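Lab notebook, design round three. We kept the backbone fixed and only want residue identities now. Task for the bench partner: fill in a sequence for the structure below.
Input structure tokens:
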């Protein structure tokens, strides 16, 4: 099985930055896409960003220009650099991996981390 562990969440003021990391273990490899989702209290889990097996990236409109996803194949990690954070970015952020070519839906991912809390104060 694949195990994903997120880290880097915390409390930050609006306009600040955080960098999330996700460490993968198990049978995931370079052929998997690796993405980030987030879920705020009372809301559905939503797509944030993904990096594909060949390095292509995609971002939700709400974070485009502020967040950057990257992948370190040697360390088997994926990171999300979050700049100019806003209160509406407050959520639990989840790392996810999958093998398909569809990118935005929860159904497009096979394995999930347990999440890391990001809280942005006004």
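Proposed sequence:
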């Amino acid at each position: 099985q694949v195990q994903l562990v997120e880290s880097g969440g915390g409390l930050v003021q609006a306009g600040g930055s955080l960098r999330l990391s996700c460490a993968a273990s198990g049978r995931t490899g370079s052929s998997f896409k690796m993405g980030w989702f987030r879920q705020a209290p009372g809301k559905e889990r939503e797509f944030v960003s993904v990096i594909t097996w060949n390095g292509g990236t995609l971002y939700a409109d709400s974070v485009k220009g502020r967040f950057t996803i990257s992948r370190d194949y040697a360390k088997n990690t994926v990171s999300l650099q979050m700049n100019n954070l806003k209160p509406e970015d407050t959520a639990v952020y989840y790392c996810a991996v999958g093998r398909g070519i569809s990118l935005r839906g929860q159904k497009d991912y096979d394995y999930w981390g347990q999440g890391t809390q990001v809280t942005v104060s006004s």
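Keep this in mind before ordering anything: The mean pLDDT is 94.
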